[in-house]
Amino acid sequence: MIQNIIAVEYDGREMRAVSISCEVPSKDFDIISAIKKASTDFCKTEEGKAVYDEFVEGLSECIADDDAVIILESGNEKLRYVVGSAVVITNTDYEYMEISTLAAEMAAKLLNNSQWKTKISY
After folding, report:
1. What is the average pLDDT across 21-42?
2. Cα separation of 6 and 48, whole Å?
3. Whether the predicted pLDDT of 121 surpasses 70
4. Is 50 exposed, middle or buried, given 0-12, 13-18 or 19+ CB atoms closer than 10 A?
5. Backbone angle region of 100, left / alpha / beta, with phi > 0 → left and psi within -120 to 50 → alpha
6. What's the mean pLDDT when you consider all of the chain?
7. Sign (positive/negative) of CA torsion 79, 48, 73, 30?
8. What does the pLDDT read at residue 120?
9. d(CA 20, CA 18)
């Protein structure tokens, strides 16, 4: 069976659409979830990490000395918990941050207790 995915890119008032045909095992097969899982799995491999590093290095070459690019990501699993991260990229370096870590660090600072740790994380 064939499923089509329509990818749409917007640039100002211009739009470009591409149709991608995929062979799937059944009509109920969730191709979008399968692609997301395969992409996530690939990014955890050594090759996937190298591709990501190449992307960041290429992007950093386009960034002015006095500027930065911030890539934000958030997600959830059936509204049981929310996760988020950010990558800050300059033309010389990049740093990855998780929102849960940033929040715990801020709580310790506001409590004036550098040893403070959360007991529960959602």
Report:
1. 87
2. 25
3. no
4. exposed
5. alpha
6. 88
7. negative
8. 67
9. 6
CA 6 vs CA 20, 21, 38, 45, 88: distances in Å: 6, 9, 18, 28, 30
Model confidence pLDDT, tens digit, residues 65-75: 999 999 988 88
CB 114 within 8 A of CB 104: no
| 1 three-state secondary structure | coil
Distance CA 4, CA 7 (A): 10
Helix (H, G, I), strand (E, B) or coil at 77: coil
Give the pTM: 0.59
**Could you state, in order of their start, the residue ranges of all structural domains in the chain?**
45-122
C-alpha–C-alpha distance, residues 48 and 40, integer Å: 9
* C-alpha span between 105 and 99 (Å, rounded): 10
pLDDT of residue 6: 86
- For the chain, count helices (H), then strands (E): 3, 5
Q: Looking at the predicted structure, is the pLDDT value of residue 40 above 70?
A: yes
